[in-house]
Amino acid sequence: MLRRLKAQVSQVANDLPGVLSPGAGRDSRDGTPFFPNSDTNQNEVDDEIEGFLCPICMTTFNSPELLSGHFEEAHNKENSLIPNPNFENSIPLHSPGTNSTASFPSKDKEIEELRIQVNEEHIYAEKLKSVVAQATDVPQGEVPYLMQQIQVLEAGKSMVRSFIGRAEDSDHKHPYAISFGYCGISVTQRMLEFEKENGQLKRFAENGQQERAEIMAKLKQLSAQIRTLTDENESNKVEKEVLKKEVAVFRFDNEKLEKEIDVLNKALNQRPSEDDVAVLRTELVHAQKLMDEISQHKDVEISEHLNSIRLLNMEREKSSELVRSLTSELEDTRQILLTCQKDLEDAKSDSSQKGKRIEELHGKVEANLAELASCREKIAQLEETVRVSAREIDDSHAMNESNLKKLTQLSDKLEQVIEEKKRYETEMSNFEEKNDLQSNSIRSNSIITSKDQELFSLREDLVRAQTELEKLMSQCETRAAESETLAKQLLTLQENSRELVNKISQGEDGSKMAIEQLKEENRKLQEEINQLTTSFKEEKEGLVVKVTELEKQHREEKKVVEEKLKKIEHQKETLERRLREAEDDVNRKAERFVEMEKEIEDDRRLASERIQKLKDIILAKDANVSEARKQIEELSSQLSDRNRLLREKEHQIEESRRKIEESVNHLAEAEAKARKLEAELSQSEARRLAVTDSESDLRSQLDDKEALILSFKQQVEKLTAELASKEQALRDAVTEA
């Protein structure tokens, strides 16, 4: 609404200089409308309304008050000198009388147009005021602009009215004073009064005519729009009918084609169709895919089974190697055990023999002890006899010296025996230390080394023990031999003592000193013999303890070896069980593999047979399809052409539908606009009726005035004829003179 008001106000402001300019009468006489086209003057609004232009001197002013003051001061005094632009075609000062009659219709038209323009401006200003008063939603920046435009219109209206009145006064006085100078002042005064009254009447009729012109222009625009819309609607209807006919034709053609397609489909159904061939091909492809999938699956399973068989074979080889190693170890351990058992049996036999030998030695020692006791008793008897036979001893002093030498030899031998005993004790201690070290090393080696080394070390220990036992037995035998020799020596001593006793008994006069010495020597020998017996007992007990310890160690080692043998046998059993299970699994998988290969072969054979059958069917179908394909290609080409035409027609139908919808929308909009314009027309008609009523009154008055004007015109024509005749007479007179 504001844009419309702005456009209208700018049109009025742009048209004001045209109204006030001398060319306005020409434009109205040429038949152009009062308001020019808004599109041509829309861009000049801002430049046109910057100032107010004087229509006479064409100077600009910033306000209408300055323009009106300038007009009053500068141009009001010169009204008699300014020619009326509305009477450009009037008779000049020295024009002939024939041209004066042609100026009155143009003047009447100009006066009537000016009156209509003034009335339209007045009505338009009132409308603008009412619109501005009713426009509650006008922005704050628009109100000063509209008020300024209203002030401009009011100033222009006042200027136009004053100018029209003054122009009518001045312009009608001046030409009529010149033209009717010869007829008198009364005619000019009456003409001026008539023109004033005519101007007032025309100003009353201008508003109605301006509004009517606007309504007619709007009606023309609406009628043009309605005409264009109806033309478009008619053209759309025509196109729609044409398209309907084409669609009906295409439908009929499509039905024909569908019937032909049905006939061809029936014919093709009787023949092996491409669909059957395609189905068979798809089935063949599907069967081949299934076969490929089955073969791939079987290959995967076979590879998996082969891998599992390979792994099982590797495990079986490893287990077999373990079994071999364990069996070899078992055999070695068995051999070692056998050797150990043999050694143990030998040791047992040796120990039993040695025990028997020791028992025999014990018996011999006991016998020797008994003999020693008897010897002691005998020595006691000998002492008694020595006492008795001291004399005999004295006599046998020489023999005693020899006996002393023998005793020294025996003492040397005893010392040697003692040294050998010490050496034997040192050897036994070293042997015990070695035995302890060897036992510790055996234990450490039993943890670190393998079972073979332990068994070999045990064997070596047993051999060493046997050798040491043999040494001990040999030593015992040597000691027994020495004891026998000692016993023999004792026997010899006893015999000697007997002999001495005999000699002493024979020679009682022997020296007592020698007997005492012999007693002391005998006592020493008895002490040494006692020491030897005690040491021998101790050595015997140590040997028995060592033998018992060796037997315990042998039993413990035997238990350990038996436990190891049990563990090895248990491991062997578990490995044999695992090996049997692996062999069973391998056999089962091999059987399954053979079964799978048989199944694969059966599946392949069946698939190959089925594929061969399908190939035969496909060849038969291809032979039948090759003929049908040509017909189908021809029909498909025809169908493609028809489908292309149908697509084009459908596209055209869619475009026509879109155009029809757009035209329907345009029609709806135009109908809405027409309804609005009809409402406005009804309002304007009501106004126009009121204006026509006032106009009829004015027309009646105008008719009266026109009757007067006709009478005045007749008088003027008469006067002009008289003037013409007088001028002709003057010219003739001048020519004659």
Brief characterization of the structure:
This protein is 89% helix and 1% strand. It has 737 residues and is mainly alpha-helical.
Which keywords apply here?
mainly alpha, two-stranded antiparallel sheet, 737 residues, 13 helices
Topology:
Blueprint: H1 2-20, H2 24-29, H3 38-41, H4 45-48, E1 52-53, E2 60-61, H5 64-75, H6 103-134, H7 142-179, H8 185-270, H9 274-388, H10 390-395, H11 397-448, H12 451-506, H13 512-736
Antiparallel strand pairs: 1-2
Helix pairs in contact: 1-7, 6-7, 6-8, 7-8, 8-13, 9-12, 9-13, 11-12, 11-13, 12-13
Task: Tell me about this structure.
Residues 52-80 form the C2H2-type domain. Keywords: Coiled coil, Metal-binding, Zinc, Zinc-finger. Residues 15-42 are annotated as: Disordered. This is C2H2-type domain-containing protein. GO terms for molecular function: zinc ion binding. With 737 residues, this protein is an all-alpha fold. Among the domains are: 1-204, no CATH class; 317-595, no CATH class. 89% of the residues lie in helices and 1% in strands. The protein is built from 13 helices and two strands; from the N terminus they run ααααββααααααααα. The chain has helices at residues 2-20, 24-29, 38-41, 45-48, 64-75, 103-134, 142-179, 185-270, 274-388, 390-395, 397-448, 451-506, 512-736; strands at residues 52-53, 60-61. A two-stranded antiparallel sheet has the order 1-2. A hairpin with a 6-residue loop joins strand 1 and strand 2 (60-61). Helix 9 runs parallel beside helix 12. It is elongated, with a radius of gyration of 83 Å. Residues 16-49, 77-104 and 171-187 have low confidence and may be disordered.
